[in-house]
Design brief:
mainly alpha, two-stranded antiparallel sheet, single chain
């Protein structure tokens, strides 16, 4: 039989972080697969297109949270701020607050 190593104690099973807009909490998908897809979209090209922002938005937020966001009727620059704030949160560039 091969060697078995239990790494459960080395892993962190934290809940997803959340952003708050007008008192409304929005959960941000922070699993590794999502983060890697986001990083792949961003790549080394700093010229992000509107279609890329929509793809990242759909990866980051659940259907239920996207419906909540849609009701806010955000302007495009505010929508970009939302998406990039979520990206900064899941990549560790922005610290979450309590």
């Amino acid at each position: 039989m091969g060697k078995i190593v239990d790494i459960t104690d080395k892993l962190e099973f934290e809940e997803n972080p959340k952003l708050v807009i007008k008192g409304m909490e929005l959960e941000v998908n922070a699993d590794a697969a999502t983060v890697l897809k986001i990083m792949g979209i961003l790549g080394e090209d700093s010229n992000v297109k509107p279609g890329d922002i929509v793809r990242m938005y759909e990866l980051i937020f659940s259907d239920a949270d996207r419906r909540k966001i849609d009701k806010l009727k955000l302007q495009f620059t505010d929508f970009q701020t939302l998406v990039f704030s979520a990206i900064n949160l899941i990549t560790g560039e922005e610290e979450s607050g309590e």
